[in-house]
Amino acid sequence: MELLKEKIQQDGQIISDHILKVDSFINHMVDPDLMLEIGHEFARRFAKQEITKVLTIEASGIAVGLTTAMALKVPLLFAKKQRPSTLEQGYYSSNIYSFTKNQSVDVFVAKQYITSDDKVLIVDDFLARGEALRGMASLVRQANAELVGIGIVIEKAFQGGGQQLRESGVRIESLIRINSLAGGKLDLID
Amino acid sequence: MELLKEKIQQDGQIISDHILKVDSFINHMVDPDLMLEIGHEFARRFAKQEITKVLTIEASGIAVGLTTAMALKVPLLFAKKQRPSTLEQGYYSSNIYSFTKNQSVDVFVAKQYITSDDKVLIVDDFLARGEALRGMASLVRQANAELVGIGIVIEKAFQGGGQQLRESGVRIESLIRINSLAGGKLDLID
After folding, report:
1. Is the predicted ipTM greater than 0.85, yes or no?
2. N or C: at which end does chain B have fewer Cβ atoms within 10 angstroms?
3. How many Å is the Cα radius of gyration of chain A?
4. Where along this sequence does the record place binding of 5-phospho-alpha-D-ribose 1-diphosphate (chains A, B) (predicted)?
5. What is the signed CA dihedral for A149, A150, A155, A156, rounded to 10 degrees?
6. Contacts of residue B101 in chain A, CB cutoff 8 Å?
7. Testing the interface with A: which of B28, B68, B74 to mutate, by most A Cβ within 10 A?
8. Does residue B86 surpass a pLDDT of 60?
9. Does B100 have pLDDT greater than 80?
């Protein structure tokens, strides 16, 4: 994923020791070609896992999730942050705390769209402390589905979420891993 | 868009006289092949307009927006419903009232990503009373960009938003137009 690395080096903005802003190509404005490459890369890495569904969370996971689902030729399911009035037929829910936003949200998926037959790949744009991923993994568990792995565009390794999840036995594939943003300097792993 | 019509007829659920639920293929679970076709169809209809940017609103507009942006080979910009802490360099905002959710939200786009040079195509999954579209059109106007048109997957024509917007001079292309959902019966226009 040289294209992704170049984009981050050129257009990523380091806002603080913890925040890398990628608003110009990932999570506000979206570069379609880059997203297609990201989707293909996740599909390549998980090609042997017979994935039946890609799961992500609205809103900024949807673009990554859709191109991954396209490449794997399976449906995308995105967890919702509001229980829609039309989601009356039963749902799984999970509470997710966002350190960035300093608030927690409940997320929902309708029970009928994730079952014990599913082999699920979770994808998201960022992995920091892993709260959103733990919430999504809980949804998969509640459905008795199989969590095949997690695909992450940018892992902020210094925030520890990835390590915790890997130690719990989850396979995580991160396209970019950041060792540090300290002093306004982007220090990548590898 | 026969595929879309078939999907709606087969899998759409009429919840009330005003609500058609398409959660199984558009706005909770997403069918990637259908989304690709939708994106290509919008690109075909607006092929001559030299569009430079596709604008939508999180969350359920993103999948439609991304495939349209792919087909047009331009960036996707999605308006955010929360002003992110990292969006400090100035933004345009607009207030949108949702009759479905009975609440209003402010939506934001960063000023730097939409300029007076842009020819903007707005896309969204649904058009009902047109509140979200008016909000997005306002963002385009604030930026002095050109609003080339609007692409809608499903227009609930009986709610009048499309008529109002067309009368104001906006070109709207809706892939499916619903005349009525009364009595649990899907009555399509054309």
Report:
1. yes
2. C
3. 16
4. 128-132
5. -80
6. 82, 85
7. B28
8. no
9. no
Give the single-character DSSP code of A176.
E
Chain B residues with CB inside 8 Å of A120's CB? none
What confidence category does residue A54 fall into, taking pLDDT thresholds of 50, 70 and 90? very high
Provide CATH code, domain B2-188.
3.40.50.2020
Span B14-44, pLDDT tens digits: 999 999 999 999 999 999 999 999 999 999 9
| Chain-chain contact of A75 with B35 (C-beta, under 8 angstroms) | no
Instruction: Give the start-to-end residue ranges of the domains of chain B.
Output: 2-188
Per-residue model confidence (pLDDT) at position A1:
86
Q: Which of A29, A101, A156 to mutate to test the interface with B (most CBs of B within 10 A)?
A: A29
The pLDDT tens digits of the residues spanning A142-187 come to 999 999 999 999 999 999 999 999 999 999 999 999 999 999 999 9
Cis peptide bond upstream of B43, omega within 30: no
Token look-up 């595929």 returns B3
Rounded distance between C-alpha atoms, residue B104 and residue B55, angstroms: 20
